[in-house]
Amino acid sequence: MPEAKTPTRTPGTDGPLTGVRVVELAGIGPGPFAAMLLADLGADVVRVDRPGGPGLGIDPAHDVTNRNKRSVVVDLKAPDGPARVLDLAERADVLIEGYRPGVAERLGVGPRDCHARNPRLVYGRMTGWGQEGPLAQRAGHDIGYIALTGALGMIGAPDEPPAVPANLLGDYAGGSLYLVVGILAALHHARESGTGQVVDAAIVDGTAHLSAMIHGMLSAGGWQDRRGANLLDGGCPFYGTYETADGRYMAVGALEPQFYAEFMRLLGIPEPAAAREDMSRWPELRAAVAARFKSRTRDEWTAVFADSDACTAPVLTLREAPHHPHLAARSTFTDHDGITQPAPAPRFSATPTAVRTGPARPGADTEAVVRDWGLAPGWAPASLPNPAVHNPQ
């Protein structure tokens, strides 16, 4: 085995977290996405995959949430499994796990075990319900978490069931992003104090936090506690979506008076400004706007509003979005290894980020990790799974 050494990197080429080491205990959903964000920002993320994969049935070559990472395979239920993870934790700045409360402790890789080896470690825990509370041990998914916080109940038409926002609102906005914020704050504290800590990121907490402004409006009497009755939930006729002649949609957000006036002018409705303020006339206004949008196709309306401040945009599909002129000009999406995917965000002037590598294949990076992290030559198992034939199904 070659002598342990630190991989050579050019400053400013890998992102602002270059030099930060992260151990990710493999899971699904918000944990991997949080680790991907840290990897996008330049951290050296080593994903500890389990034998057989996560069981979701997706080809590892297409799992974009594992880009910019490296992978080793460890069986935490094997006699030497926990010790191998603790060896990684000893050399890491951050560890991320997404098990139910108590599972990491039973496996021997909980905070106490890890901090005994590395007191500076930031131990990030990603769950839906949190580490304590009546539901902490219950199974769950995004839709249930956002349901209890009141967020799901705000989304959709008033005469229809709440609309399901994929798993973006709970898993990723209320979960992953809050875990990353917590990890970065705790990492700063660890570097200042020399002491690590546990970050308890619960999707219910983060999603509830996202609704802070709405709760303020509710308290002030500026928000009704029901769907489709407010300025920002589709209740307002100049903030919502409308079907076009070809069965597609336009999104309207003409809230301010000057934008509203521009919107109505380009839409072709000689509507006095008073109707904007008179909620009793909103149904009449909505019907007029809907009728106008139905008279042309989405692309025709896109051309009408293209060079205006009417705050009106086409509703694009996932495959259409990368080709929009603005997103294409900004390289908001990128292609890597034949996969079109969102580029890393946000952007940095001195330490730019990039998609450096495609999705990590389970176990493919073991030798490199052993070398770069200074692990004992015997750390790796005698035989490794062949990532080329790995099938999580």
Whole-angstrom Rg: 25 Å
Please work out how many helical segments DSSP would assign: 14
Main sheet specs: 6 strands, parallel
Considering DSSP H and I runs of 4 or more, what fraction of the residues is helical? 25-40%
Could you give the count of β-strands? 11
Overview of the structural elements:
With 393 residues, the protein is α/β, with parallel strands linked by helices. 34% of the residues lie in helices and 13% in strands. It has 14 helices and 11 strands. The protein is elongated and about 80 Å long. The two termini are 33 Å apart. Mean pLDDT is 92; it is low at 1-12 and 383-393.
Secondary structure: elements and pairs:
Blueprint: E1 21-25, H1 30-40, E2 44-49, E3 69-73, H2 81-91, E4 94-97, H3 103-107, H4 111-117, E5 122-127, H5 142-149, H6 168-193, E6 197-202, H7 203-210, H8 212-219, E7 239-243, E8 249-253, H9 257-267, H10 274-277, H11 282-293, H12 298-305, E9 312-314, H13 325-330, E10 333-336, E11 339-342, H14 366-372
Parallel strand pairs: 1-2, 1-4, 2-3, 4-5, 5-6
Antiparallel strand pairs: 7-8, 8-9, 10-11
Helix pairs in contact: 1-6, 2-4, 5-6, 5-7, 6-7
Task: List the defining traits of the structure above.
single chain; 393 residues; alpha/beta; 13% strand; elongated
In short:
The protein contains 14 helices and eleven strands. With 393 residues, it is of the alpha/beta class.
